[in-house]
């Protein structure tokens, strides 16, 4: 028959193996977000289970008080690891205060009479609250479709919080006679802890992997400076829209936008301020586009905009709107305001063709706009 002490020792092994697995997953050049916090949290938990296994052998101050204070610290570290994965502050004030008040309350209860019911109640309640905070953090803003691992981890921790809540109420309804590791309730707790540690570590690894994949996908498809799409993302979408014109009649327009005299801007106010100009231009363009439109940074100071279901007159209107949004409001940089203008080439097609051809047409129109004096939008035969 398995007793709670044997299970606590098994738990030490399980926890250490989980920590080792995550440490190996972060090995080399792959940095698992939150991995360090999680591994340290697990190591503290392993020490906790070890101390619990020694209950009755070592003084209670170690096997009861220290063990439970370590659990609070581990819970805070595990929260911080998950917060790092989802990009939120790792140690919010309510988390710290819950751990501190829980730890303080437990210490008072321990030195003020060590009533088992009170101590189990305080520990279970504080841990339930820490878990509820983790669940809120994970489920807030995460949908099942977009971040399934984060969502599943949120639900899993919710289940763990429920189990702990039952234990909290159980401590009040059936007060335990002692803190010793005996009896079916302790055995059950240790079994549940096995499943919780394994489930949480697996969930964390999947969640961290999910975040890494999303981050890599973002980097592969977006320009790091402006946040606009890059050519690798733009070209297939543009080509697919053009190919569709063979089956579905319609029109498609492309704008090529180039900032005027950008070299001069760089020379006058510096390369970093030039970067800010690029970001602000992208922001202004983005704010004026419709849902189906697509903005990409196509070269240094050149942007390409895909306008599906847009004819030549409407495309020229959009181009003018973008040009004015850039030229009419001064850019505030390094405490001084500068005027930035852009030239735009417009091209529209109504039949399938290679994207390169369409971009070539827009480029020729852009060249025309530059030749005609810059700060203008030009289409075929229209400048
Ligand atoms: N700050 C900054 N500058 C960039 C970046 N990429 C390209 N550039 C600069 O953009 C400038 C482009 O200069 P040109 O191609 O001569 O064009 P221009 O000065 O805008 O002149 P026109 O297009 O003819 O009006 C070069 O000086 C590049 O160094 C970038 O990411 N950041």
UniProtKB/TrEMBL annotation:
Boundaries of each GGDEF domain copy? Answer: 250-382
Catalyzed reactions per annotation: 2 GTP = 3',3'-c-di-GMP + 2 diphosphate
The alphabetized UniProt keywords are: Membrane, Nucleotidyltransferase, Transferase, Transmembrane, Transmembrane helix
Output the Gene3D superfamilies linked to this UniProt entry.
3.30.70.270
EC supergroup of this enzyme:
transferase
Provide an example Pfam family for this protein.
GGDEF
Assigned EC number: 2.7.7.65
> So where does this one cross the membrane?
6-26, 38-58, 64-82, 94-112, 151-173, 185-208
Q: Name one GO molecular function term.
A: diguanylate cyclase activity
InterPro entries with a match to the protein in the record: Diguanylate_Cyclase (IPR050469), GGDEF_dom (IPR000160), Nucleotide_cyclase (IPR029787), Rev_trsase/Diguanyl_cyclase (IPR043128)
- SMART domains xrefs: GGDEF (SM00267)
State the protein's name: diguanylate cyclase
Upper classification of the source organism reads: Bacteria, Pseudomonadati, Pseudomonadota, Betaproteobacteria, Neisseriales
């Amino acid at each position: 028959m398995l007793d709670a002490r044997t299970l606590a020792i098994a738990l030490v092994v399980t926890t250490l193996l989980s920590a080792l697995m995550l440490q190996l997953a972060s090995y080399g050049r792959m940095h698992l977000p939150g991995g360090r916090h999680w591994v340290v949290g697990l190591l503290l938990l392993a020490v906790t289970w070890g101390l619990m296994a020694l209950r009755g052998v070592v003084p209670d101050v170690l096997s009861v008080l220290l063990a439970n204070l370590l659990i609070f610290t581990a819970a805070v570290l595990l929260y911080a690891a998950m917060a790092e994965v989802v990009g939120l502050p790792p140690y919010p004030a309510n988390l710290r205060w819950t751990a501190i008040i829980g730890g303080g309350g437990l210490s008072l209860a321990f030195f003020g009479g060590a009533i088992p019911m009170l101590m189990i109640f305080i520990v279970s309640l504080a841990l339930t609250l820490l878990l509820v905070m983790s669940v809120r953090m994970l489920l807030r803003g995460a949908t099942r479709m977009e971040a399934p691992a984060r969502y599943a981890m949120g639900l899993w921790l919710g289940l763990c919080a429920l189990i702990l809540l039952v234990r909290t109420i159980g401590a009040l309804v059936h007060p335990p006679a002692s803190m010793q590791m005996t009896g079916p309730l302790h055995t059950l707790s240790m079994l549940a802890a096995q499943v919780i540690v394994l489930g949480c570590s697996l969930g964390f690894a999947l969640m961290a992997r999910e975040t890494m994949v999303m981050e890599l996908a973002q980097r592969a498809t977006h320009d790091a400076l402006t946040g606009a799409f890059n050519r690798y993302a733009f070209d297939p979408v543009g080509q697919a829209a053009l190919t569709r014109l063979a089956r579905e009649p319609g029109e498609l327009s492309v704008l090529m936008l180039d900032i005027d005299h950008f070299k001069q801007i760089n020379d006058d106010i510096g390369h970093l301020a030039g970067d800010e100009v690029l970001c602000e231009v992208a922001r202004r363009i983005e704010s004026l586009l419709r849902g189906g439109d697509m903005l990409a940074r196509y070269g240094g100071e050149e942007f390409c905009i895909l306008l599906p279901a847009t004819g030549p007159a409407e495309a020229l209107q959009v181009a003018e709107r973008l040009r004015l949004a850039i030229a009419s409001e001064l850019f505030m940089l390094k405490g001084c305001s500068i005027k930035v203008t852009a030239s735009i080439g417009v091209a529209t097609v109504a039949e399938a063709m290679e994207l390169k051809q369409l971009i070539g047409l827009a480029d020729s129109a852009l060249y025309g706009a530059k030749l005609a004096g810059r700060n203008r939008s030009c289409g075929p035969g229209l400048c």
